[in-house]
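Recall from the previous chapter that SMILES is a line notation for molecules. Here it describes zinc ion.
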Amino acid sequence: MADLKSLRCPCGFEVRSRDEDEIVRMAQLHAREIHGQEITVEQVRALMERVA
Ligand SMILES: [Zn+2]
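With both inputs in hand, we obtain:
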């Protein structure tokens, strides 16, 4: 089973999943809806952390 990954936005939003594609989708949606920014898959992956 894949490791649990987490992505935290400076605004306090957090998404956790074992599915990286889901985190990418959620993060991109959040960035667009809340911050009006487009972020790339590479940016999301760079910010993603493994949850111990
Ligand atoms: Zn945010």
